[in-house]
Design a protein that fits this description.
The complex is a heterodimer of chains A (about 250) and B (about 240). With about 250 residues, chain A is an all-alpha fold. Chain A has one domain. Helix content of chain A is about 75%, strand content about 0%. Chain A contains nine helices and no strands. The model of chain A has no long low-confidence stretch (mean pLDDT about 90). In chain B, helix 3 (about 95-100) crosses helix 4 and helix 4 (about 110-120) crosses helix 5. By secondary structure, chain B is an alpha/beta fold. Chain B has a six-stranded mixed beta sheet with strand order 6-7-8-3-9-10, with helices on both faces. Chain B is globular and about 55 Å long. Chain B has helices spanning about 45-50, 70-75, 95-100, 110-120, 135-145, 165-180, 195-200, 215-225, 225-240; strands spanning about 5-15, 20-30, 30-35, 60-65, 65, 80, 155, 185-190, 200-205, 210-215. Classes of the chains: A mainly alpha (about 250), B alpha/beta (about 240). The interface between A and B is medium-sized, with 26 and 30 residues.
């Protein structure tokens, strides 16, 4: 456990020292601010009611779940795997007294922390702007649960990028291939709606299932199991490649 | 005597048919072993397998009695190493890079990090980002990292690369001192045969992926004027077969 903790702290430390993190935080904040300004303008000057009292946070979450969250997560995953393989800094971690399983686990936990931090930052700011726009938040618990639920599909996407990073030859190819896979999955869900429920990209907004007046527990459970299945398979495949890789 | 490193029937063949074949070697505790061989002989491959960066096709390496393939964490617990080249994180400072290493060892603290940076002459530059470091400074940092946890075994691939003459002398003295005082075992590969002659107790020559000779430096120097002559004669002998 102490070894995983050391790997995890090291990975978090490295993430925190990257300029990309500051940039991603700034972009996330800017996107929330821009969304708030647009909503405020439409509500007050155009006479169009875009969101209700509880919907601003959900609207921001929906937009970011399909854009900046996966993008920034991909950056971090690629940096942690393909990037470290490319510049050989991975040797630094792998020659420590940590097995590859513990290194892999430590890195995955750090990625999970990064995703959760992004969601928490956006949740806090979108709540604050909701207060400003609507003077209050109705159903705050459901919105908090929405943000918690949004974590899972983004994490599954992260595991996909980790898998890709473990067989790509460089950071650029890993990034391009990750974007390609993302677009193919989104394209498939549009072209073949009958298989949509089996594609994890169509679950990015699965938290909407708890926002209506009727909550379909069965459907939520089914999607959860599908995402869990993706998670187990992607983790196993990513670790297999990581373990077998000669440096 | 107590065996620090045992290499048993180690083989790794690449797609181009190069690599290492059936390597067997034993290094005693406290020994400074020099690993020599021409380019492409398989020195780095051997060292990479020894520290778990590569998987062997056959055979095993035991470090302090622990198998590198079956008990990696215990085997690597008391090892410091530089393999191929030193590649610290360029966006971190030397001190921060050392901290990353130190987190794996409870006994390493800020004082020990400073001590290692002092030994390797980097203390003045400890807060500078690695991207501004020269090759020699990175090499010194690699050595500082390798000795950080006071490991029982240190594996160094081309440790004198990029060092100035003064640096080479300092590193040679450091290696000899650690071996004498702490009984630290060293496994060193280098093309600088003169440094190997001055530093190592025992020398092994790898040629075409096979270990063609292992001999004490003292014995070699009884029969040859220099290690270089011995090396060339061994390589010539094997090249003719």
């Amino acid at each position: 456990m102490q070894i995983i903790k050391a790997v995890y702290i090291n990975e978090i430390f490295k993430i925190s020292k990257k300029k990309k993190i500051t940039s991603s935080l700034i972009f996330l904040l800017l996107s929330v601010i821009v969304a708030a300004i647009v909503v405020y303008s439409l509500n007050n000057f155009a006479g169009v009611s875009v969101t209700g009292s509880s919907e601003f946070s959900v609207m921001v979450l929906t937009i970011l779940s399909y854009s900046l969250f996966p993008l920034f997560t991909a950056f971090i995953c690629i940096d942690m795997f393909a990037g470290e393989f490319a510049d050989h800094t991975i040797k630094f971690t792998l020659t420590g007294p940590a097995s590859r399983l513990n290194v892999f686990l430590g890195k995955i936990l750090a990625i999970a922390t990064f995703i959760a931090s992004n969601l928490i930052v956006v949740a806090i700011f979108s709540f604050l702007f909701s207060l400003f726009l609507n003077g209050g938040i109705s159903n705050p618990l459901r919105i908090i649960i929405s943000y918690i639920m949004a974590f899972l599909p983004i994490f599954i996407f992260a595991l996909t990028v980790v898998l890709i990073s473990n067989f790509s030859r460089g950071t650029t190819s890993a990034f391009m291939f990750s974007i390609f896979v993302f677009l193919v999955f989104v394209g498939l869900s549009v072209a073949f709606p009958q298989i949509k429920s089996f594609l994890f990209t169509s679950s990015f907004d699965w938290y909407k299932l708890i926002l209506g007046s009727y909550i379909n527990v069965g459907k939520i459970f089914r999607i959860f199991l599908i995402l869990l299945g993706y998670g187990i398979m992607l983790f196993a495949a990513g670790y297999y490649l990581f373990e077998k890789k000669d440096i | 005597m107590d065996k620090a490193i045992v290499i048993e029937d180690l083989s790794k063949i690449y797609k181009n048919n190069r690599g290492i074949q059936s390597l067997n070697l034993e290094i005693e505790r406290g020994e400074i072993f020099g690993f020599l061989g021409p380019n492409g002989a398989g020195k780095t491959t051997t060292m990479k397998i020894m520290v778990g960066l590569m998987k062997a096709d056959k055979g095993d390496v035991k470090i302090n009695g622990y198998s590198i393939s079956n008990d990696y964490e215990n085997a690597m617990k008391d090892i410091g190493c530089i393999v191929e080249n030193v590649t610290p994180f360029s966006y971190l400072s030397a001190y921060e890079n050392m901290e990353l290493c130190g987190r794996f060892h409870n006994e390493v603290n800020g004082t020990r990090i400073d001590e290692c940076l002092e030994i390797t002459g980097l203390i003045k530059y400890k807060n500078e980002k690695i991207k501004n470091y020269s090759l020699g400074m990175k090499q010194r940092l690699g050595i500082a990292m390798a000795i950080l946890s006071k490991p029982k075994i240190i594996i160094l691939d081309e440790p004198f690369n990029g060092l100035d003459v003064e640096g080479m002398v300092e590193m040679r003295e450091l290696i000899i001192n650690l071996s004498k005082k702490n009984k630290t075992t060293f496994f060193i590969s280098s093309h600088l045969i003169h440094d190997i002659e001055l530093t190592c107790d025992k020398v092994g020559i790898l040629y075409g992926g096979k270990l063609i000779s292992v001999e004490k430096t003292n014995n070699i120097l009884k029969n040859y004027s220099s290690l270089e002559n011995y090396y060339l004669s061994e390589v010539d002998l094997n090249a003719n077969y």
